[in-house]
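Hypothesis: this fold can be encoded by more than one sequence.
Test: take the structure tokens below, design a sequence, compare later.
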């Protein structure tokens, strides 16, 4: 019933910035966890950053460069990505979790290249 729509991906040069958005449509409730994950060909989907009501966490490789945030009134999750590196290239997926199930976004491609 709930759909997550991602936007904001694209091609940027090393050192550039992007802001990813993940907006929930329809009725949504009892969401207690939100996160951003990324996946490259041949690799497992990996956690980049997540947020609860009181805590944010980041994978070591993005600390100081990425910031996760949310706008509860808009049911939207954001990932601000600064100082991008080629190793950040991946498909990025958002996740909203309730006690009973996970909701995944469709994925958005981020490519960092000269």
């Amino acid at each position: 019933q709930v759909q997550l729509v991602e936007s904001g991906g694209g091609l940027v040069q090393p050192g550039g910035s992007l802001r990813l958005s993940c907006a929930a449509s329809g009725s949504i409730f009892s969401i207690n966890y939100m996160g951003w994950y990324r996946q490259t060909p041949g690799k497992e989907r990996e956690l980049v950053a997540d947020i609860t009501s009181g805590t944010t966490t980041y994978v070591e490789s993005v600390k100081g460069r990425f910031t996760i945030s949310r706008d509860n009134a808009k049911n939207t999750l954001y990932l601000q990505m600064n100082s991008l590196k080629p190793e950040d290239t991946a498909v990025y997926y958002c996740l909203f979790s309730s006690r009973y199930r996970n909701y995944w976004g469709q994925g958005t491609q981020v490519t960092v290249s000269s």
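DSSP finds no helices and eleven strands in the chain. The mean pLDDT is 94.
Hypothesis status: open.
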